[in-house]
Design a protein that fits this description.
Shape: globular
Strand content: 5-15%
Strand order of the largest sheet: 1-2
Radius of gyration: 17 Å
Largest sheet: 2 strands, antiparallel
Structural class: mainly alpha
Length: about 140
């Protein structure tokens, strides 16, 4: 990737490339889901304990309105349900349905495959440096 010193543009381009790869890989799965829906399923699978909308918003760094729309669509597609928590009726825990659980291994394998593709040829030091730089950049714009 050529660069002209514009870090924001380089990050945006890389983000678009990764998003397109996720969407392409997800489209090859038998389920009718998008890349973001696959990431939601992957996150819920990997997270131990109850998962709430706020957890998804934070993990995927998406706005509340985006998370609400994605979760509503996933609920409509039969991929998840939102269940009331006994100690707080306002909270709704995200529970994957059998349909989502049926494709979880495919999604998990796809996510691992893309992650391996992203770090292919990188050393552990390069990966650590990448995360260090990304954290600094993220903190600069908070």
């Amino acid at each position: 990737m050529e660069h002209d010193g514009r870090v924001g543009l380089a990050i945006r381009i890389l983000s678009n490339q990764i998003g397109r790869e996720f969407d392409y890989q997800i489209s090859n799965l038998p389920a009718d889901i998008t890349g973001l829906q696959g990431r939601v399923i992957g996150f819920v699978i990997d997270k131990s304990g109850d998962v709430f909308q706020k957890d998804i918003e934070k993990e995927l760094d998406i706005r509340r309105s985006t998370a609400t729309a994605i979760l509503q669509l996933m609920e409509k597609k039969g991929l998840l349900t939102r269940e009331t928590v006994s100690d707080d009726a306002r909270l709704k825990k995200i529970v994957l349905t059998d349909k989502a659980l049926g494709i979880r291994n495919q999604i998990k394998n796809m996510l691992e495959r893309v992650e391996s593709q992203l770090i292919s040829g990188l050393t552990e030091d390069e990966i650590n440096t990448f995360f260090s730089v990304m954290k600094k950049i993220s903190n600069n714009i908070k």
